[in-house]
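Q: What residues go here?
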């Protein structure tokens, strides 16, 4: 079950330590009040941790349309499997431009 974080609404609580962690099922409603002090609380977005227990073979990922890159050094990546394996540059995130593609 996920751990959700809550913090008091408009002011800090003198009884609690600020944020509180609550283990809740995904289907449960979020808390409206702190279980210790009674102040109204909001659920806050926090870091997520996802663990994948299996390793992925680059060739089988390529068959499903995914690309696999291997880090060579800081800022340098090598494409080892996937469409257009000749390309050594990973695709840019949506909305970013490669300034090297433009003439001066």
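A:
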């Amino acid at each position: 079950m996920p751990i959700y974080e809550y913090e008091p609404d408009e002011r800090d609580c003198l009884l609690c330590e600020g944020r509180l962690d609550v283990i809740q099922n995904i289907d449960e409603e979020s808390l409206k009040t702190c279980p210790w002090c009674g102040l109204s609380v909001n659920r806050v977005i926090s870091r997520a941790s996802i663990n994948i227990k299996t390793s992925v073979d680059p060739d089988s990922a390529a068959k499903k349309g995914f690309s696999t890159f291997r880090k060579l050094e800081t800022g340098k990546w090598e494409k080892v499997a996937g469409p257009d394996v000749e390309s050594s540059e990973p695709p840019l995130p949506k909305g970013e431009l490669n300034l090297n593609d433009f003439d001066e």
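A: Context that may help when evaluating the design: Strands lie at 3-8, 20-23, 41-44, 68-73, 76-81. Residues 1-48 form one domain.
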